Automatic annotation (TrEMBL):
Organism: Acuticoccus mangrovi
Source organism, top-level taxon: Bacteria
Lineage: Bacteria, Pseudomonadati, Pseudomonadota, Alphaproteobacteria, Hyphomicrobiales
Gene Ontology terms for molecular function: hydrolase activity
Stretches assigned to the BD-FAE-like domain: 63-161
Protein name: Alpha/beta hydrolase
Amino acid sequence: MSSIPPIWSSLTPEEHEFQYNPQAAVPDYQDYRVAREPANAAALGGLARHADIAYGDHPLRTLDIYPAAGGAPAPVHVFLHGGYWRAQDKANFAFVAGALVPHGVTTVVANYELCPAATLDEVAASAIAAMRWVVGNIADHGGDPGRISLSGHSAGAHLGAEIVAHDWAGEGISAPLAGATLISGIFDPTPTMATSVNADLHLTEAIVARRNVEVRPPALASAVALFAGGREPWQWIDQTYRYAHHLHRHGLDPAVHVLPGRNHFDILDEYLLPQSLLLSTILGHAGVGA
């Protein structure tokens, strides 16, 4: 019996690049980070921060903790940045803490290993190691290890899905995640192999088979919310729906939201809008009100 050809099989090389390389679809992508810089600088300068805490020996296995004020252990939120597994730094995402800390949520913004120096296997392993460190150590920083949620954008959404799929029970860690908000994610790395990005990623069929979270069952019964931008290329949006179908097949009930007018890069502005559905979803997973 022949298999159904993948959705991207009929694309020209130019179409494939547009659909699966967000920078090709949004040529002014840098402008959106620049526009968020005042909010990011305000968070870096105005919040308490424990910076560059090591969660492993690699120089990129570091994280920043922005503790919430108050005496009681606070809910914890871990953010994993995008950059197609090859770029970006936690310092550019302090604005996430700026949105969450005022609501009493201790926020962790993590770096992780990057391609091409690391393989995608090593990138995923470092994200899982960051979560493992948070579970084991966040109580020392005023966080409640029983109330951890996460969000991730783009490649960070894939890494969040890796955390959802990881066998935590096999490590003796019980249900470390209260909820996951995965934004504009790439969940099957296979189509990336035919983009220019693979010059940095060095993906192989064996690597993408191991790192495809559309075929690996979730190991956590966490609340999952999936977001994408309505102005993203359709086949990029389709990854979110495919991953949602995958979670449904394994008994989860993910929420799926396509936000009109948002592209792959300005969707992060939703963290900065006090009444946004994205922010209220994250706060709901944390167990606090908007």
